[in-house]
Amino acid sequence: MTNRGAGVGQRKTSPRIRARRIRAVQYAVLVVAFIAAALLADWPQIGRTFFDPGLIRDTVAHGLWLALWNTLVYTAGGFVLGLVAGTLLAMMRLSEVGPYRWLATIYIEFFRGLPALVVFMAFSLLPLAFPGLAMPLPPYGTVWAALGIVGSAYMAETIRAGIQAVPKGQIEAARSLGMSAGQAMWKITLPQAFRIMIPPLTNELIMLIKDSSLVFIVGLSAANFDLTKFGRAAANSNVNITPLVVAGLGYLVITLPLSIIVRRMEAAASKGR
């Protein structure tokens, strides 16, 4: 009886109970942290500095929507250029011609490793290096080119993965029907690959929206301000961070719906499998 009782007393806690206890401790730590932050924070100062009601109204009424529109235009142009260039780069990466593969690999690795800030700085200095050089549709042409170069390096790898995800049997079937390699790529492989790539390409679009905040380097007039440049200028003129916070919320207005769309597409794709 003694040994049996000792065995019952030494019975180990089940993994499920241990996991519940660990979660309870984690929740308790989070609650304590939030309460401590709420008690220690200077809420009146936070309201005056970051959420001034008058400045919120002025920021929304004077220029925010134009800056939001400019951000969308910059991003859309950069995304289209990046998508076209990325598709060509992906096909070069998969080409049987060695120099094409080498050039595409060097381009992709170089611009994926280079900060987007450096690319924008390089484009802003191009007129100094090449006197008389002018990008079309200034400042949109410069911004589109810079964003397109940054985006194409990332999109190329996404597109390459999408192309390789298409079953080879479909390409072989197309070739057996008399299609050339180019026709099979454009009519069979790429349409299916892009259906696979929609969620990751949407993520690339979200990244470009955030990268568009670097256009201040190019030098813009007030009519061409993006959200970040507009928020910084308004914050400096009012000596208050509220306009910059409002501009940041403008990015969320764009990116949150896209993020929800990506999650739903990924969920639908996983169900389809």
From TrEMBL:
A GO BP entry: amino acid transport
Keywords from the named record: Amino-acid transport, Cell membrane, Membrane, Transmembrane, Transmembrane helix, Transport
Residues that span the membrane, as ranges: 24-46, 66-90, 102-125, 137-156, 205-223, 243-262
Subcellular localization: Cell inner membrane; Cell membrane
Residues of the ABC transmembrane type-1 domain: 68-262
NCBIfam families reported for this sequence: HEQRo_perm_3TM
One annotated GO molecular function: transmembrane transporter activity
Pfam families on file: BPD_transp_1 (PF00528)
PANTHER family, sorted: L-CYSTINE TRANSPORT SYSTEM PERMEASE PROTEIN TCYL, MEMBRANE COMPONENT OF AMINO ACID ABC TRANSPORTER
Upper lineage: Bacteria, Pseudomonadati, Pseudomonadota, Gammaproteobacteria, Salinisphaerales
InterPro entries to which the protein is assigned, alphabetical: AA_ABC_transptr_permease_3TM (IPR010065), ArtM/GltK/GlnP/TcyL/YhdX-like (IPR043429), MetI-like (IPR000515), MetI-like_sf (IPR035906)
Mode of membrane association: Multi-pass membrane protein
Family the UniProt entry places it in: Belongs to the binding-protein-dependent transport system permease family. HisMQ subfamily.
Record protein name field: Amino acid ABC transporter permease protein
Gene Ontology CC annotations of this record: ATP-binding cassette (ABC) transporter complex
